[in-house]
Structures are given as C-alpha cells and as structure tokens.
Amino acid sequence: MAQVVILMxxxxxxxxxxxxxxxxxxxxxxxxxxxxxxxxxPERTAELVRQHEAQGVKVFICAAGMAAHLAGAVAARxxxxxxxxxxxxxALNGMDALFSTVQMPPxxxxxxxxxxxAGARNAAWLAAQILALEDSALEARLxxxxxxxxxxxxxxxxxxxxxxxxx
Length: 167
Ligand code: RP5
Description:
This protein starts with a strand and ends with a helix. Helix 1 packs parallel to helix 5 and helix 5 packs across helix 6 (136-164). It is 51% helix and 15% strand. The chain is globular. The longest helix is centred in the last third of the chain and has 29 residues, at 136-164. The chain folds into two domains: 4-134, Rossmann fold (3-Layer(aba) Sandwich); 136-167. By secondary structure, it is of the alpha/beta class. It contains six helices and five strands. Helix 3 (70-75) links the parallel strand 3 (59-65) and strand 4. Bound molecules: 5-O-phosphono-beta-D-ribofuranose (RP5). The site of 5-O-phosphono-beta-D-ribofuranose (RP5) has 10 residues, from strand 3. The site of 5-O-phosphono-beta-D-ribofuranose has 10 residues, from strand 3.
C-alpha cells in the first residue's frame, strides 16, 4: 500500500515532476504515480481519488500546467492533504498554473508549492513531514537529511572562503 500518490495532468509534466519521486524514494516513502487530467479525464480523476483513499493513501500530490485544476479537483473529493505543484511551459510562464492551483475557495485548501522542479522536490519533503507526524523512523531520516544539508553548507563555505581569501 502506497502512502503517497502523485498525479500529473499530462505525461509532458513528467520531467518537471521527477524530482518529487526521487526525493520520496530517498526518504523511503512509498508512492505510486499516475497521469490524469481534471479536464480531459474528469471521471477518471474522481475514480482515482476514491480508489487511492480506499487503499489508504495519506497524501495526494498533484502537478499540472495551464489552467491547472487537477489539485483543486482532487481537493474537492478528499479530506486528505493535497499538495499542488504548478507546472510551467506556456506563454504565461506558469503564472496561469500557479494562480489556478493556489487560489482555492475556503474549506478546500491545496498546499501550493513552487513551480516545476523546486516545487516537486518540496512536495516530497512536505508529504514526508506530514507522514512523519506518525512515523518516528521517517522523522529521523528527515532530521538526518537536514543535518547533511547543513554540513554541506558549511563545507561549501569553507571552499569559497579558501578560494577568495585575500588578507
Ligand atoms: C495540463 O496541460 C498538463 O498538466 C500539462 O502541463 C499541460 C499541457 O498538456 P499536454 O497538452 O502536453 O498534454 O493539463
């Protein structure tokens, strides 16, 4: 049983969403991925939400571009947390997807993250943090990842300092 489901509006979104799956894999969070469109396959979207809820999925992550209604359409059908990744690639440079995803009516929130790969990565982190509320081993993995990130900042600082020292 997967803990997280990632839905993307089109296969053309795959490249920008891939970091989400990579981070979830690194954090050992089980997940499944499907393509479904709020506009092109509205019934399939509803059916996938119903199926994944029944199978015990805890967090939905939805990525879409243009008039990006996928995350909102999912949020309309579940009380489980929905995380949205707006995808760029149009003449509006993703602002269309960002506003479509973020601007939800009261009672139907979508936790909307940054555009494209940055949002995809943080979608995985946020989903993991939600799951870690009831999973101390996952919480420990998250803490270890943060410690690694902190160590790498210090290491890069030392490298930069050595490179540009003039005293
Ligand atoms: C959205 O329309 C998809 O999420 C994608 O970002 C965009 C374009 O889809 P394709 O025409 O490439 O399938 O629904």
